[in-house]
């Protein structure tokens, strides 16, 4: 995965693709029992980007809650409005307690139904300030039936039933209607309140209203909160346990922020990425995934006097409204205690949020987090695509980003659910179990490739289709299919394609062998093509192969890697490109013979010296003495620059030693590393394509290389900046490398001391 991207015309297409994002709330996209078809089925039809949600927020104003809890409830209501990523969502906010006389009411409308565009989110941030705790004589009980009735009314009156309906109930969970005459005589009010609560929960479930209780106070009634969560509509935005309504306790006002964000993310199928919390002035980093197509950076300022600036991973200070390069920005809550910067098509990587405050307003910590939605795509294959009845076929579904790159980090698709089914003529659909555990048909665990086998029923007699659906909370659902045909017997042309994997640089070619046997007395034309790969990244040659009658041969298939422009400047390290190689028999009605997944690892082109070193060696080989001299010089140079034995000290900005790491031999005299857990327990870890690298300097000390910043001389007693908070120094016990650096060829994993 990359952490940067090239700006320019190529990025405009990326912004357009973001408009095709399918929200994970549309998890059931295409029936898995659809009729079989011979052609591959693309991703599910696109829905409007960032599908909206209708919210209602009910805030308990009874005297059982303290003033601090009421303040936390108000901040939570504002956060709900600011955290949403869709400008077409709507929200209404109301307070509730109880009506204990004819001139009182149980519900206090505060914010009418408001569209959550930029202006609407600002207005909600203002109107929630009207919420307050009730005083004696104003009706201080807790009327849950009235609150749920009001919430259901707000969510169903004049709204589209296809839009998800979510009621957030902010309360301590203790119902008290003993002072409310509308519940009958005093001795029967508690029982009548419970009866009406059960009835209102049934109505909420029937109206598809989810209820997400958030428990405030010292000891909220968890049993009551759980019952209300279970009483509403249970089907979440995706068919995953994490999306089902649950009740959550908040342990004090300071705890509500991360708790609320996790609940909000689950209710709306968003991904939640927490960040650090510090007192201003400070720079707070937060990471946006390469899968994100839209997100909100939410900043808890604590006080409105805090000012915030945002810097993207490329080092650009971005605007808070309008467009910049390929991204669109919209700020809400800038004048309040919580603000959110919504970003469409954000640059992936680590963002820096700089917070400042004037003297007298720096006592409260400022926290940062990200709520985001993303897009996940897959490719699916059957091998063989035209099996005989009773024969096994292996089904593989491979994950990739919306731009066609393989997914390296399993955390990017955590919680993923893969469903697959084989359908076809003459038999009942068969479910498939696809796993990524490295067992059975799955060659490698946790590589984003899910595999399984299925036996084609003996009564299958026509078309076949395998369908797979990927579902993950916060990521768009993707449905893919691969079609084939049941072979009535031995095929006239049989093929076997060797492994289609390899590594290279832009402009290189990777090869695979295609074995072909024609058992007929007529020539057959085979067509080769690529699927599920972005145009320009890869090509396949030849496009057609003619097999003579009775011929049995092996042909070379060439996979060409696109040029540098095709990768939009993403090659700051090795990048995986996936897709599918298809071979069809054009002479036999385009019968599919091969649909094989391919995996090409693309890395930056080597330097001229790396590519043509052999020419230099060949030129000096004519003079033996010169050859020996050059080799001796190269050996000495390697020894003088070999980083093995360097002791690397990771320092804080105050000079405190945070970790010590011993460098190994490295690669090409560079020992590459990165900083793990940079914001909690920072330490140096060896990584082949790390952002940082060191080598010895012939003049003493070392040379530090930082991707994107060039090289810096590091003296034996000096320090060099790694990040705005971390520095690097050499330990006094750094030793010279091995006398013969060529005696080992490992890359040097290094060790922690």
TrEMBL record:
Q: Where is this region: Disordered?
A: 426-454, 730-753
- Annotated TM spans: 612-634
| VWFA domain residues | 54-267
Q: Which SMART domains match?
A: VWA
Establish whether keyword Ribonucleoprotein is in the entry: no
Show the InterPro entries listed in the entry: VWF_A, vWFA_dom_sf
UniProt lists compositionally biased (Acidic residues) regions at 740-753
Q: What is this protein called?
A: VWA domain-containing protein
Provide the species name: Streptomyces californicus
